What we know:
This protein folds into two domains: 154 residues, no CATH class; 107 residues, Alpha-Beta Complex (FdhE-like fold), CATH 3.90.1670.10. Helices cover 40% and strands 13% of the residues. The chain has a six-stranded mixed β-sheet, with helices on one face.
Amino acid sequence: MFSPLDQSILDHLRKAKTRHGHLGELFNFYEQLFHAQFTFKAQLRGEKGGYPREKEINLTDLAEGIPQITFDELNIEVASFVDLYKSIVELLNRDADHPHPAKREPQPDTIVRYAREIFDSRGPLVGSSQPAELDKTASGFVLAPYLQAACECIMPRITQSLWHRGYCPVCGGVPSFAALHGEFGTRTLFCSRCNGEWSFRRVGCPFCLESDQQTYYPSEEGRYRLYFCKACNRYLKSLDMRESPSEICLPVEVLATVSMDIAAQEKGYRVY
Length: 272
């Protein structure tokens, strides 16, 4: 049912639950969420809309810093979008002490508009967890499989040497994570929206491009780094792959390092 990539993410997530027992509730939620999203994404490879897989890479846009996809190119089929929205709202409310009124019958035009606003913002798909924002949170979660399916089609065909910007070449999203690779610590950024990964210079803030206002704090074992930019007040989590003893799955690492998000946000830094 799932692609090898999606199945690998689920397998890594289940393994992570045994290593991070204190995050069991978080991992249980995302296991259910990923299962729903990946099931839906498999349908996008069929008849239910999605990015046109035959579209060529726009090299002019790539050279000029314009991401490859637009919202309209996702070809959202509203009825399917609403069905997944309802499933995710149910998941969000399943263990809530006070279920949110997002459980009511949604207005299709409204939730698709939320998805468009989230896409255009270039920010993470999930923002505030306050009740007033749960409609948008659910819409963001529904948007994810559309963007991931597009990324899986586009990213392997992108010439990395043409893109060294701080936002995703596929969807324009900001990074949620970084990784250091190889002998010289080459850095890649990981998109907060479509799971795309692309190259970026080792030194400098990907959000504001400032090079002189960054500091970082390493974890005790040296695998993780938390970067702070004093110029734009943003932070970025990073993993040194050279210090990692086993195969790494970045979508799971984003979840497993939630304590780093909390620490950064308590200091007044933001991810976007």
